[in-house]
Each structure stands twice: as C-alpha cells, then as structure tokens.
Please model this.
Amino acid sequence: MATTGTGAVVRSPPRPLSERLLSLAALVTGLALALPVITIFLLALTPTENVWPHLIGTVLPGYVLRTVLLMAGVGVITFVVGTAVAWLVTMCRFPLRPLFLWASLLPLAMPGYIVAYAYVDFLSYSGPLQTWLRGLFGWKSPADYWFPEIRSLGGAIVVLSMVLYPYVFLTARASFIRQPATQLEVARALGRSPWGAFRAVALPLARPGIAVGVSLALMECLNDIGAAGFFGVRTLTLGVYTTWLSQGNLGGAAQISAVMLLFIFLLVWFERSARRRQSFVLPAQRPRQPDRIRLNGWQRALAVLVCGLPIVIGFVIPALVLLNFAATRWADALSPAYLDAVYHSLLLAALAAAIAVALGLVLGYANRAMQQGFTTRVIRLAALGYAIPGTVLGIGVLIPLAGFDNALDGFLRAQFGISTGLLLSGTIAAIVFAYVVRFLAVSFGAIESGLQKVTPNVAAAARTLGRGPISAFFEVHLPLLRPALVSAALLVFVDCMKELPATLILRPFDFETLATTVFMLASLDQLEESALPALTIVAVGLLPVILLSRTLHEPHITS
Model:
C-alpha cells in the first residue's frame, strides 16, 4: 500500500499465486529445517530432570576446557599452515609448486576419525615407526627411550589440523588471487621485503577469507567424535554421545548440546564480525597479478617442506597404512557385512543429496525472488545447519520425530484401534532428515552461487513473455543451473558418506554404514578389518577433491 502526491491511497497489486506458493514453500521448509535447533533449546530449558547443577559440578567444565583447547590448537595450526601454503603456491616459484596446488586438497578426502585410527596404529609402541627405531638404535623397552604419546590432546590437535587445513588453504588462496599487483608493488617500492609485504599488505587484505576458512575448520573440529574419542579427548561432542547413549540421560545430553550451540553461535559471530570489520573493495575484474617471487637455495627447500609435509601427514601416511591393512583383507570385499554397509551408505547419501538439492532449489529461488522479508531470514537460519554438530542434530531430530510418531500412534489407537509404531524415528527417515538439515547449506550455497551467474535480465525477459516465477524457473533457470546442481549433489553425497556422529545416534538397530563400521571396528582395535570400508570412504571423498582442483585454475601471474 502506498500514497500518491495528493494523499490518495494506492493499493499495491497482489503478488501472483505462484510467488505466494513459492514463499509459503520456502517458509515451511525453512521452519522444518530449523526445528532441531529449536528442539534442543526447549529441551535444555525444560528438562524432565534438572541436571545443570550436576553437569556444572562434574563433567561440563572438563568438556568445555578440552573442547576450547582442541579448537584453539586446531585454529592456530590450520591458520598458519593453510595461509602459508596458499601464499607459497600462489605467489612464489619453487619446485613441485603445480603439484602442491592440487595435492593440498587431498587431506579433505580423509575423514578425521580414519586418520586418527591410522596414526594410532602407525605411532603406537608395536607400530612400524617405533619398531624401526628400536631396531635401529638397539632399544629394548619403553624405558630406554622417550616417544610422544599419540593418544593425547596434542595428538588430536595435530591430526585434525592436518585434515582440516585445506579449508583455510582454499579461502586464503582465493583471497590472494583477488589482490591486485599494485598494492604489493607499492609496499616493495617503500622498502618492504617479500615477507614484510605479506605481513603488512597481503595478510590484512586476506583476513576476511581466512576467517571463513578457520571458522569452517573449527566447525568440523567441533563436529568430530571419532578422532577425539580415539585419542581419549573427551570433548563436548563425545559428552553428548556418552551422556545420552551410555548413561540414558537425554536431558543432560540436550543441555550439553545447548552449550555446543553457544560455541557455534560464537564461531558464526566471529566469522561475520571478522568479515565486517575487515572489508575491502576490490576490482570486479580479476586484477593483474604480481610477478611470482623466485625462491633460491634453502628457501626452495623450505617451501617444498612447508607445502609437502602437511600432505604427507594428512593423506599419504594414512593412505599407505590403510592400503597395507587392506592388502591382507581383500576377501572382505565380498562379505555380506561390507556389502550391506556400502549399500546403506549409498542409499542414505543418494536420498539426502536428492532431497537437499530439491530443497536448495526451492530456498535459493525463493531467496532470489523475495529479496527481503521474514521468509529470507528463515531461509538464512535454515542454511546454518552445516554449523550444527551431528550429535546435536541427532537429539534435535529424534525428539520431534518421536513426538510425531507417538501422537499419531495414540490418535489411531484411540480412533481406529490401529498401532502404527515408529514410522519416522528409529528408521532411515530420521538419518536422511538429519543429513538434509546438516548439509543443506552446501547445496544452498552451490545453487545460490549458480543463480548469481544468471543475470536478472533473463528472468525479466521470461516474465515479460507472461511466465510466472515457477514457469520461468523451469524454462530458464533450471537448464542454466545444471552444473551447479551436479556440484551440489556431489558435495552433499560425499559429506553424507563421511558423516559419523548423526549416523551413530539415529541409525536403526543392526543398521551399519561404512562410517559406523569403521568406527565400531576401530573402537575394538580391529584396524585391519576397518581398512577396506575406510578406503572406500576415502575413494568417494576424492570426488569433490577432483572437482575442486579443477576450479583452482592458475591466475595470470608472470612466471
């Protein structure tokens, strides 16, 4: 409704029916995907038994302290390693640089819990490294020498950092590529060394992108349950799992989950605050890049070491350990347990990827069409699911689904004498719903990025030809979005194949996936038996690495 210059009231034309339906669909979808977070806070604030005093007086301070220390260590190492590798492969010339450009993504294919299992075996007293050292130096017992304990907080920090640093590498490299040559050349003209120009100019300009990468790494660190548990580090995530499933205390698990959500909100605030305070206007076109710095002598050797060591630690050594184990267990590939785990993993991942892409399309197109308002805020809230750890999602998903099942069963019993049992909770529907909530942000981000490449003039032309938003979507946007849809489906599929915490909590009885099979076998110290399913997960995880490596095209830098 608006007013004219004469004061007359002019009613705004009603929105088309298709646009209202699109807005309603996006609103319902967004609220449904936000339901787990709402459930956690309601359950934590109104538990059947108030265990806050017990938690605060016993386990909660330890959980919080270890979680903070783990995240702080991972944050510092991923920042240093990811930024250093990104700067070297982008701005310097040294041997093997083209190899490191794509190989630095390989650790992304390795889930943290799989790397943890490999290193515990590789570095244990009976493992190959200590056995070789005893043979080399003639040591007879542990009393003859000192060796760092891998099952410790320090071990967890190093291993998780070597798996997660590619998040920082990707965002930092993207930031360095966007920086124009003139700014660095001015710093060099004023007497700054290459290192000084990096500290004074390049690093501050890249800080917003680096903050995004560190935040992603810390969210994955907080979500981890397998690596931390195997290293004996009892974090908040592991506390939720044991409090609920081992001690049967759902209220306590929900309250610990609420504390974890506070960590997540702090991470999101940190990332957005860093970007807001450190925002710079860069040219829309890719700027001319500076000449690459030629490294010589010890500098070249150091650059190769800095770029190569994280790849060796985060991918090469774990892969060799798993291949060595799997070499003696190839017959397991025909075992019913392995084949069932592969089938279950593929089924869950395919269903979740299809649903996440469909919902991502709805939310992405609605966000583009609505531009503003309550619906867009709900969409943004639903897209935050990637930040929620799987253990928290497990509780947030199971409670409302169980409530729905019980209400439906009670109604049908009372009215028709029919018992429906558990239709959603305790079935694969709960797992798929959790996957969709957690990984919708991946699908939504890829689709939103694809939509941004479709000029509004195309949609406007369709509208002038009488097409509504839905018709324009199917006839114009959908064909142009196919590459983005394929990328979104692939990324969600692989993330679902690797997801462990939510699967552990929500899986039906006697229902195993590749991830839970690896977790259970490794927890029983049956590492050789876990090698083949672990390698299967790694092989699938290489798919997005290949996809991402194709996007790391070389900028126009004089070399």
Remarks:
- The first helix runs from residue 17 to 45.
- The two ends are 60 Å apart (CA to CA).
- The longest strand covers residues 2-3.
